[in-house]
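Thanks for the sequence, V.! I ran Thiopurine S-methyltransferase right away. Repeating your input here for the record:
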Amino acid sequence: MTPEFWLERWQQGETGWHLPEINRHLQEFWPQFNLPANAAVLVPLCGKTLDLLWLMSQGLRVIGVELSPLAIEEFLTENGLTAVMTDASPFRSYQVDELTLLCGDFFALTPAHLPEIHAVYDRGALVALPPALRESYAAQLKMLAPNAAQLLITFDYDQQQMAGPPFAVQRNEIAQIFAGKTIIELANFDVLNEAPNLRQRGVTALAEQVWKLE
Ligand SMILES: C[S@@+](CC[C@H](N)C(=O)[O-])C[C@H]1O[C@@H](n2cnc3c(N)ncnc32)[C@H](O)[C@@H]1O
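Predicted structure:
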């Protein structure tokens, strides 16, 4: 998936992954992370997810990273927010209270752009990337947030039935790309009935899995 692929999705309004509500797995499982007040949470490939607001409401500092300026503009407009914009080359930084949105390529992010990160929230990020990029994504996270706990939400289905995104990501791959982390499966749901669009694309069985990496 090239940057152009994603920029075009936003331009065409083809953002079927976006949820109109806070993610239920985030609300259920995040308390397990027991973060101190004011801890910093990184949300890679954040889109315009409302989960950013929920994380903020938990008293956390939140840093979202998103390629598309349109996604960030929609996030701000739809939530009635006004941001202070600054240059954080090669990113453009949008600041709203304790939320920082960095607009640019996640793979260009360096530790210099970030405070110490205590936790990572990944919904729709790892599964958005093709196999060849997933290892680099994990390496990038390891470099940016070496000691962070991670809540990771993935899909599993027969990859022969549909071309991603979202891609199927299984436990063995997670263990391989995040080697050194302890991987705990928190939940595994059959979500085929909640994903008519994927069913339409040929998927006959679909699991959504929630993982804690620490
Ligand atoms: C499947 S969407 C998920 C968005 C969000 N996590 C959610 O749950 O709604 C993937 C997002 O990643 C963004 N993206 C893709 N590649 C990126 C990159 N290299 N750096 C930053 N953002 C990227 C896309 O623009 C898109 O908004």
